[in-house]
Amino acid sequence: QVQLQESGPGLVKPSQTLSLACNVSGASVRDSPDYYWSWIRQPPGEGLVWIGYIYYRGSTYYNPSLKGRLSISVDTSKNQFSLDLTSVTAADTAVYYCARIRRWERRFDSWGQGALVTVSS
Amino acid sequence: QSALTQPASVSGSPGQSITISCTGTSSDIGTYDYVSWYQQHPGKVPKLVIFDVSNRPSGVSNRFSGSKSGDTASLTISGLQAEDEADYYCSSYTSGSTYVFGTGTKVTVL
Q1: What is the pLDDT of residues A73-89, one digit of tens each?
Q2: Residue B83 DSSP label
Q3: Which positions in chain B touch A116 (Cβ < 8 Å)?
Q4: What is chain A's alpha carbon radius of gyration, rounded to the nearest angstrom?
Q5: Integer Cα distance of B5 and B45 in angstroms
Q6: Burial of residue B85 (number of CB atoms within 10 Å: 0-12, 13-18, 19+)
């Protein structure tokens, strides 16, 4: 049974970089050709927004609206993947979820508990 | 990349059936049978209830069913129960190898 857990600062100042990690247990990020590893966010009181995903070989796909500020990477030594979002503003305040995508069915089948990140000075 | 369009709210009485629509474009729902639906109770993690348009994961009630016609997908909840009161989001794979979620629908059980 795979489990995902987000970690990182809960408060980030405007213009700085938001960095989160997703620790994966019960599955290997490096040895999982059948899965993608994804980030999703949900601003307070709003809907889900897909951020991006990474494949174990390193290829990445990003939400066009965030491209240019976004980077998703994999740390195989720690069995985790990470999110870096630069030049943040209050609009980036959200609960950030990491999730696993089943490659062939294109579904988000496992989610982390979510991490609230507030952008404020 | 615009969000898929869902009605803001849908309501029904216990035992009734309701249907939530999810409208996309030819770049997502219209081309791919990779539509999934997620149920989210307040303060909780989204839960997958339908994938690949009409398939139910193990453990999900057969009261949940999905379909698709053209650029629009639909989720039907039959025999509505109090526990079904939640927010529901559709999602689709897109031609850019990306994903998009719907705007979300609040289901109220009267």
Answers
A1: 998 889 999 999 999 99
A2: G
A3: none
A4: 14
A5: 21
A6: middle
Structure confidence by residue, pLDDT tens digits, B70-93: 999 999 999 999 999 999 999 999
Residue B93 buriedness (CB in 10 A; 0-12 / 13-18 / 19+): buried
On whether any CB of chain B is under 8 Å from the CB of A38, the answer is yes
Residue B110 tokens, joined: 């009267």
> Within 13 Å and on the Cβ side, how many CA atoms surround B108?
6
Chain A residue with CA closest to B37: the answer is: A107
Query: Is A37 in CB contact (< 8 Å) with chain B?
Result: no
Instruction: Say how far apart CA A79 and CA A77 lie, in whole Å.
Output: 6
The distance of A106 to chain B (nearest Cα, Å) reads 6
Which of A47, A49, A113 is opposite residue B45, by nearest beta carbon? A113
